[in-house]
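Mods, move this if it's the wrong board.
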Amino acid sequence: MDVRVGDILTMKKKHPCGVFTWQVLRIGADFKLKCTGCGHEIMSTRSNIEKSIKKITREQTIP
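Not the wrong board. Structure tokens:
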């Protein structure tokens, strides 16, 4: 799966604060994500996060 730092991930289940979107802060064997609603940060394994992703939103940069 092509996930990059700065991407916004829409997950299958919502966070307790009510939003479905998380921003990617760090990638590797583990992902560090920040909730776009309340700002809560989590670290979880790549396989766990990739199973939960519904959609990846990336800002397009114009050269």
